[in-house]
């Protein structure tokens, strides 16, 4: 049945990049948010962008269960290059920090069952000032293929955003010609959203597996709220372009670093799951505290993020109260089995847990009876009958995140067994038609 409607979705959606990758939002780990451009390995041996950091992260991703949970890409962001190309015009990895070259790093990552992500910039220089790919597209792509990378984030510093409408697609075409499946992460719209004219997301979804829409995330609650606000305010434009193979990217997970409390980290994980966002950790996996690790490894929330229907959810209700009292919002995502993932978020930072009730209209739930599962498992299973109000009690700058499972749909799904040729399931039809 799953296969059937992936095919149906493929037929019904508009043109989109079809390289067989990112059928669900990519999951992995990236250096940037936590380790930035730390290059001094003498002063900061555990934090500098280096083969050592990548190796120990690869080890942790496997031994601590992240790979098993779905986090498969291990990516280096900016600051891995020497400042100059070689005499033949090739990219050269920093000789002290990557003493064995990038192929050795790739081999190690692959030996662990992980996939290798790399970073470059479409312009003259990367954002941190290292050599960019402009006028070296072919040789750089050949080099990446020699290194056997699986994922490429192509940033957009030091290039006119007007040039990106042609530049990113043409780079993607060269990537495609190599025959190596490489997940293509574009920063194209992030630079155009800043500029005068709006990005053409139809074209972006045709050429990229994922794309950074907007500014960089910073290690703070304010930054998370800012990004949530922006994605909520622009969801009419953005959400329609997400789907299997192509995703909006609100940027890395801050979870486990310095700026978010446990409650705030739970908010980011919940809203990123609703947004069908790539889940890219950026944290020291040697020292992460267990309560943050637990959030990152929450199987039920990962399942929401990875839901095969691939439909991006949205902010369905918002109330901005006076005196910072009721800053509440509801986010809702439809899932393939006819259920809904619903996050109740409080963005207020003061006070104590706040209890209130919501009706079906506010939660944007279809009429019916529901079984309600708390995805953070603080509460027992609850039942909500048609027409009743639902009570939630939310911590300041916190979230309650539930899966609402319609009573009938569960029964229907259990009855429909393994019919793979037709979409006979009424619930699935309802989802497809809605
Ligand atoms: C890139 O650098 C070259 C040579 O320095 C310069 O001529 C060109 O204008 C630069 N291009 C951009 C887009 O900055
Ligand atoms: C190249 O593009 C074609 C057509 O979209 C696609 O079928 C194929 O999988 C792509 N190959 C790679 C390596 O990206
Ligand atoms: C946006 O891109 C699509 C697909 O490439 C194209 O058909 C359309 O004309 C573009 N729209 C604008 C306004 O340029």
UniProtKB/TrEMBL annotation:
InterPro entries: Aldolase_TIM, GH, Glyco_hydro_27, Glyco_hydro_27/36_CS, Glyco_hydro_b, Melibiase/NAGA_C
Location(s) in or outside the cell: Lysosome
Enzyme Commission number(s) from the entry: 3.2.1.-
Residue ranges occupied by any Alpha galactosidase A C-terminal domain in the UniProt entry: 310-398
Chief localization: other
GO BP term, example: glycoside catabolic process
One Pfam family cited in the UniProt record for this chain: Melibiase_2_C
Keywords: Disulfide bond, Glycoprotein, Glycosidase, Hydrolase, Lipid metabolism, Lysosome, Signal
Molecular-function annotations in GO: alpha-galactosidase activity
Source taxon at top rank: Eukaryota
Bilayer-crossing regions: none
Signal peptide boundaries: 1-16
SUPFAM superfamilies xref list: (Trans)glycosidases, Glycosyl hydrolase domain
GO CC term (a single one): lysosome
Subunit structure: Homodimer.
Family: Belongs to the glycosyl hydrolase 27 family.
Protein name: Alpha-galactosidase
């Amino acid at each position: 049945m799953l296969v059937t409607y992936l095919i149906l979705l493929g037929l019904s959606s508009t043109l989109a990049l079809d390289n067989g990758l990112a059928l669900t939002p990519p999951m992995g780990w990236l250096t940037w948010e936590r380790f930035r451009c730390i290059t001094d390995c003498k002063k900061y041996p555990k934090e500098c962008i280096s083969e050592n950091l990548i190796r120990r992260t690869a080890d942790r991703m496997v031994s601590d269960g992240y790979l098993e949970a779905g986090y498969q890409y291990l990516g280096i962001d900016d600051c891995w290059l020497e400042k100059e190309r070689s005499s033949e015009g090739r990219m050269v990895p920093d000789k002290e920090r990557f003493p064995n070259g990038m192929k050795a790093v790739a081999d190690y990552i692959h030996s662990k069952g992980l996939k290798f992500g790399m970073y470059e910039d479409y312009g003259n220089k990367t954002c941190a000032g290292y050599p960019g790919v402009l006028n070296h597209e072919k040789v750089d792509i050949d080099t990446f293929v020699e290194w056997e990378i699986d994922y490429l984030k192509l940033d957009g510093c030091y290039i006119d955003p007007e040039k990106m409408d042609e530049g990113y697609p043409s780079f993607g075409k060269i990537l495609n010609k190599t025959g190596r499946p490489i997940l293509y992460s574009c920063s194209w719209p992030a630079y155009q959203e800043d500029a005068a004219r709006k990005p053409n997301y139809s074209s972006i979804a045709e050429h990229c597996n994922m794309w950074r829409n907007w500014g960089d995330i910073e290690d703070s609650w304010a930054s998370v709220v800012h990004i949530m606000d922006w994605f909520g305010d622009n969801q009419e434009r953005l959400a329609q372009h997400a789907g299997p193979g192509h995703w909006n990217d609100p940027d890395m997970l801050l979870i486990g670093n310095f700026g978010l409390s446990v409650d705030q980290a739970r908010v980011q994980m919940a809203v990123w799951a609703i947004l069908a966002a790539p889940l890219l950790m950026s944290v020291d996996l040697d020292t992460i505290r267990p309560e943050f690790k637990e959030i990152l490894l929450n199987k039920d929330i990962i399942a929401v993020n990875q839901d095969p229907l691939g439909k991006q959810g949205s902010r369905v209700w918002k109330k901005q109260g006076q005196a910072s009292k009721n800053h509440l919002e509801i986010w809702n995502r439809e899932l393939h089995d006819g259920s809904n993932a619903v996050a109740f978020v409080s963005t207020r930072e003061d006070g104590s847990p706040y209890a209130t009730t919501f009706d079906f209209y506010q939660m944007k739930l279809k009429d019916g009876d529901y079984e309600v599962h708390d995805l953070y498992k603080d509460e027992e299973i609850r039942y909500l009958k048609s027409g009743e109000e639902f009570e939630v009690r939310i911590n300041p700058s916190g979230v309650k995140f539930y899966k609402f499972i319609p009573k009938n749909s569960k029964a229907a799904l259990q009855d429909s067994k393994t019919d793979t040729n037709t979409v006979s399931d009424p619930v699935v039809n309802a989802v497809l038609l809605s």
